[in-house]
Design a protein that fits this description.
The chain is of the alpha+beta class and about 350 residues long. It has nine helices and eleven strands. It has two domains: about 160 residues, N-terminal domain of MutM-like DNA repair proteins; about 180 residues, Helicase, Ruva Protein, domain 3 (Orthogonal Bundle).
Length: about 350
Amino acid sequence: MPEGHTVHRLAAAFERGFGGQRVRTSSPQGRFRDAAALEGMVLLGAEAVGKHLFLQFAPSADVEADSPVVRHVHIHLGLYGSWTFAGEAGFSQAHAIGAPRRRVGEQEEDLEGYGAGGEGGTPDWRRLVPRPTVRLRIAGPRGLADLTGPATCEVLDAAGRQAVLDRLGPDPLRPDPEGTGRRRFVERVRRSRTPIGVQLMNQQVIAGIGNIYRAEALFRARLDPVVPGTDLGTPLLEDLWEDLVALLAYGARTGRIVTTEPEHRDLEARIIERSRGTRQNGDEDAGVVPREKSFYVYHRQSLPCRLCGTTVCSTELAARTVFWCPRCQRVRSRRSTWTREHPAAAWALTP
């Protein structure tokens, strides 16, 4: 399942590729019947909140975003959903994700027939026949986007959109100038005895965090995944929030999850690959941090910790596998021992 930074990249893709343009919509699969009602509308913009994407449609480009005539297409990709883009020269650069992919997120593969959409564009993209599994196709003047396999694809009014937002926790990638999101996160964690490793995967506590960010943020904070939230102090949780803000911002900027400090990347540079591998956007590009150097503990079970040499462990927690170092992650109720500058200032990572 794509993590929050990927959905923010998708929102940016739609803003740049279709924002303010009149589009055509269809449902080749036939399961999204509202597609016909959106045909010919203008895509005003796109919004990401955690793992949820909202596409705003209106009869004309001069409609205000809060107008009651605006319709919000709410999409949650879930485990199997994906967007695939094709278009004229430069169109894929507009969405800043790269070549069309089967899975936009941690695992990405080229799709035959969609082409790279790069400098030369996708030849004859206007004649590209949608696969029968496409739930929604959006086509604009310069390109198209096909949605397949989402967990949720529905049209909401403003009240319906707000109802979705009301059940989500704060998103570290959304603007938070007053610190409201950080305070909500800290207060929610501290009033529950649920382990912090479970709470981080609860989208009502914090929106957009998936299994990789959970494991890596807990390691960076030196936090034991099973410590109850009530045992954690406010300064530690504030540090954890700020670190997640910086980590996700890097992911949104580059399309890659990289949590290791540069000086640690060559230490025990190994990873336990799954059958398909833990692939990331741009793995084949020169100069990116390779995946075996990107993580401290994620998919490194049975390997030595990069910092202390202790064997990295894994177990089931919140229906997903959590990875941790039993020696490094001993913090239970005090501030993190991770010595660095303020996290947000320290994370000027290079791709």
